Amino acid sequence: MYSEIWEDPRLSYAHLNICTTNITLKSDFRKNIWTPDTCIINSRYSSIHNSPTENTFVILYADGLVWSNFRLKVKAPCKMDLKMFPFDSIECQLIFESYSFNTDEVRLIWHENPLTIMEAVELPDFELTGWCTDHEKLRYPNGEWGRARVKFTFARRYGFYLFQTYFPTSLTVISSWIGFFFDVRAVSARITLGVSSLLAVSFQFGNVLRHLPRASYIK
Which domain-ending residue is among 115, 139, 156? Predict the structure, then answer.
């Protein structure tokens, strides 16, 4: 869920002295009023849920305050450093910016409670360990734009790799030591055991690499 709140005095209806303090309107109402034109500039893909209709609403308050809410799906890149794999962590961020208005007209400010996690985030490979928000300003040729950024930190769940890679590899290496107890004349047995252990370790290493992004450093 993504919410935006801004104030537009032109939409105030306090002078009408009606009973209600706020009015809930359909999403089509946004097309007829001024909006901050916020976008997620680092997103690769984003869409508003439709189940069965568009999951948005607009609430207009008597003093001209506008609250717009979306049920949003966003795909954005994450920063990964695989040098400590599988004991690594990744950082994902969403950067919000007004597409049309610079800081002379729109300033993006986080609410005092900027993020609410309703229930624990459960992912097969990662665990959410923290999040933070901040602001920054970026100067373009036609002015200065403000940005609001939220960062999520995820730690990789390494249990799968311990049981599927580390433990089998350790057992393979330990079993290769049996060759030291063979008779010195059992050359073929020593060679067979050594080559088999080497092939098993190489296969396990290659199987792990197939599931990792390509990187120019040792993982």
Answer: 156
